[in-house]
Structure formats: C-alpha cells, structure tokens
DNA sequence: TAAAATTGTAAAGCCAACTTGACATACAAA
DNA sequence: TTTGTATGTCAAGTTGGCTTTACAATTTTA
C-alpha cells in the first residue's frame, strides 16, 4: 500500500506536529504512517482523508492482494 | 460508526460464508463486522467496498469524534 | 415436521496499530 | 556558535482486529 499523506500534508503547509494535533494522534504515528511502517485504522484513514478533502481511496493506493481477485 | 455491510451483502444475494471466502477472512469476522462488534482494518474495508462497488465512505458511516472537529 | 442451510455466541490466542518517552539528526536564524 | 524548529530512530507497553474451534439458535426448504 502506498500513501500520499506526506505530499498532501506539505501541499497544505502543515508540519507533522500540526497534523498529529488535528487528528489527536501522536507525532510518532504520523511519522510511521508517512514512512509506510504500518497501516492506519479505518477511523484514522477517514480523518486523514477528511483533512485533505479527498476520498480514502485517493489517499491510499492499494496493490496486489490488498485488492480482491 | 455504522455499516451497510449486511444490506449490501443481501442485495448481492450472498451468504456470510460466501463473502468471507471471497475476502479470505473467517466467517466470524463477517458476523462481528455486521454486528458492529469491531471495525475492519483499512485493507478489509477496501476489499468490502470493492466487492460492493462503492467507496469506503459509502459503506461505513462515521459519526461524532470519528470525524475531525 | 424434519433436515439442511444460515446465522449467532463464547473463548483463547496472535499480531499489528498506536502510545509514550527519551534521544539523535538536520537546518535555519539570531 | 547557539537556539529553535522539524524530522527521525528505538524500545517497551496496551489495545483491538482477526483467527480458530466448537457448539447453539434461527430460518429455509423439502
């Protein structure tokens, strides 16, 4: 899975800390998400998409067996 | 969070077991999701939405503090 | 009504999402 | 050089998504 979190955050001129406070998660969570260390919960994915005014499926790009076959 | 999984599954004339096999999860997982016992992972939410030909945000309805404030 | 199909409950276990905290690196400005 | 801001690593702990197994209840169909 790829994510455009970093790109969209920078587009909106936000720091990791600002984003983390807006979403009420730790800054470490933002770092890890941007680095692809793990995948967000559905709720967090939704809040991220809301923040960036886009659909979840625009913010996260699913690949291979993350799609149905 | 509310979900339309059950409604969409029945619309498509699928049993819980058929759906679980298509998504490669346990039937118990489908039961628990339909009953609202827990929230799916992002990947599973995506596969469900794909199965039902809709966006994640159409299949799951976020409420209250599941939205940004 | 009896059999079969579908849906449901309960419980124990694994692993990943997320947290907290402490510290490191890089860069810009004073 | 020193200070401040932004980003990063590491590690240990908690929680909850999902699994498996076994069995019970409900609905459908013959």
Overview of this structure, please?
Chain A has helices at 5-11, 16-23, 27-34, 42-51, 56-59, and strands spanning 2-3, 60-61. By secondary structure, chain A is mainly alpha-helical. Chain A has a single domain, classed as Orthogonal Bundle (434 Repressor (Amino-terminal Domain)). Chain A has a two-stranded antiparallel ribbon with strand order 1-2. In chain A, 20% of the residues are buried. The interface between A and B is medium-sized, with 22 and 22 residues. The structure holds a DNA duplex (30 and 30 nucleotides).
Helix/strand layout:
The structure is a homodimer of 69-residue chains.
Chain A: E1 2-3, H1 5-11, H2 16-23, H3 27-34, H4 42-51, H5 56-59, E2 60-61
Antiparallel strand pairs in A: 1-2
Helix pairs in contact in A: 2-3
Chain B binds a DNA duplex (30 and 30 nucleotides) through residues 15-17, 25-29, 31-32, 34-35, 38-41, 44.
The portion of residues assigned to helices of chain A is 40-55%
Number of helices of chain A: 5
In CATH terms, the superfamily of chain A is: lambda repressor-like DNA-binding domains
What proportion strand of chain A? 5-15%
Which chains make the largest contact? Answer: A-B, 22 and 22 residues
Determine the structural class of chain A based on helices, strands and strand pairing: mainly alpha
How would you classify the quaternary structure? homodimer
Distance between the termini of chain A: 16 Å
Tell me, what's the shape of chain A? globular
Biggest sheet: strand arrangement of chain A: 1-2
């Amino acid at each position: 899975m790829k994510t455009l979190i970093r790109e969209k955050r920078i587009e909106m001129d936000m720091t990791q800390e600002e984003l983390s406070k807006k979403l009420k998660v730790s800054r470490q969570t933002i770092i890890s998400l941007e680095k692809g260390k793990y995948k967000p919960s559905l709720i967090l994915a939704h809040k991220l998409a809301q923040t960036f005014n886009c659909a979840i499926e625009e913010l996260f790009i699913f690949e291979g067996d993350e799609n149905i076959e």
